[in-house]
Write a structure and sequence with these properties.
With 316 residues, this protein is an alpha+beta fold. The protein is built from seven helices and 20 strands. The chain has three domains: 62 residues, OB fold (Dihydrolipoamide Acetyltransferase, E2P) (Beta Barrel), CATH 2.40.50.140; 97 residues; 70 residues, hypothetical protein PF0899 fold (2-Layer Sandwich), CATH 3.30.2320.
Length: 316
Amino acid sequence: MAEWLIEHGIGETRALLVEGDNVLAARIQWPGELVVGARVSGQLVTKLAGKRRGIVRLDNGAEALVDHLPANVTEGQQLDCVITRAPIAERGRLKRAQARVAGSDAPVSAFPEGQTLHRFPAGLWDEVWHAASAGEIAFAGGSILVSTTPAMTVIDIDGNGSPRDLALAAIPAIGQALRWFDIGGNIGIDFPTIQDKAERKAVDAALDVELADWPHERTAMNGFGFVQLVARLEGPSLLHRFATSRTGMCARHALRVAEQAQGHGPVLELRVHPALKAKLKPEWLAELTRRTGREVRVESDPGLALEAPSAQIVAA
């Protein structure tokens, strides 16, 4: 039976939906973020004429788009709100959070509750993390490439075989990517061009089965092989985080690698790319020292990839 497992890391909380040895879905949350379901207050600074929408400046200084405004509310008024979509960083801009005036129908938190573990079973998180870092999932005969744009997340399919066979083979990997990477919003799938209408319908039917338990709306495949999905967007996907804060993702990964280092000795030596050394916050390193009970020594190595830190226990 599938269950959510939670791991409280340094600088982030991770969640995996696991059934047996298989990961079905993944989530990340960073401390201090505005998240879906959070109760916030702020001042209405803009009310759009003729609409029940506006902009509220939250007490922490951030701005959020707010809807469901009462008819009698005025600019300058203090409002209690609930977050319905977290802010999402994109290349060159930040999409404001979305909120609504708090009421009895306030949404619950999007982050799952589950069994808290000191450490996930070996390999499960690493597989998801590296797949999201590369934006790629392989399948028999090909792979899918997943990337973010300001307009939508795009899934491209590459491989061998007839267009129909390649499209059908890619569908399980597409479902896996949507759940593993926590993707929402507008999603475009660029299947190989399939000329025969009956074959396109066969791919549509297979996609229906794969996504039957994943809430969304979608179009049928057009003559160019394109399918559009629309799903509830509640916050940044793993892909969004890698696209806009790769060093932040990799710094947190390096801390996780360091925390799992095995051996005997008083010093934990963590080797990272120089860009990551600059990203490691003093409070994170202090927490790493507390968790491991060892002095932490961080060394920079320009020969290491951002995604490939190393850690070892040394004598001194």
